[in-house]
Amino acid sequence: MGVNKFLIDHTRCIRCTGCETACKTNNGVPTGVRRIRVVTVNEGKVGERNIAMPCFHCYDAPCVKVCPTRTLYKRGDGVVNHTKEKCIGCGYCLVACPFGAPQFPGGGIFGTRGKMDKCSFCVQPFNQKDEQGNMIENEPIPMCARFCSTKALLGGDSTEISKQFRERIAGFISFSF
Hints:
- The protein has 177 residues and is α+β, with helices and mostly antiparallel strands.
- It has a single domain (4-176), classed as 2-Layer Sandwich (Alpha-Beta Plaits), CATH 3.30.70.
- It has helices spanning 18-27, 62-66, 92-96, 143-146, 158-176; strands at 4-8, 37-41, 49-53, 72-74, 80-82, 153-157.
- The strands form 3 sheets. Strands 1-6 form a two-stranded antiparallel sheet. It has a two-stranded antiparallel sheet with strand order 2-3. Strands 4-5 form a two-stranded antiparallel sheet.
- The longest helix is centred in the last third of the chain and has 19 residues, at 158-176.
- The protein is globular, with a radius of gyration of 17 Å.
């Protein structure tokens, strides 16, 4: 079994924002906060691409390295998670993240001190607990990936999603010639 990762196929994304809706609905994310967002590169020009941008749970996560309170931590399955209660709202993780994944809502269910929030790879409130006491699924597939209508967003075990992507590429190459 590999580590958990996201893989984005920008050739399939149609900017339906189903991933954003699934994330918000499943995780109770308030208005104004996005754990995943779809960005458009070269909008209205040749080469326009829509790209889903969750937390990519980096192998060598810079956000984890700069967090002074160890709010962010990397689990054994590759997921970069966080413990909101430890966050002091310094924003170092946001500055360190090349994808802008950490969010700092000012109020709502996450508190009023600007506690950091980010994609948790849809850690569910059942099954076993990780090192920090957060619950995890046996076979986690984030809701954004489950509900992506075009399967532009793949998430889960890196071995499995890499296999799926290789099969896509093989099919594309055979139709290209």
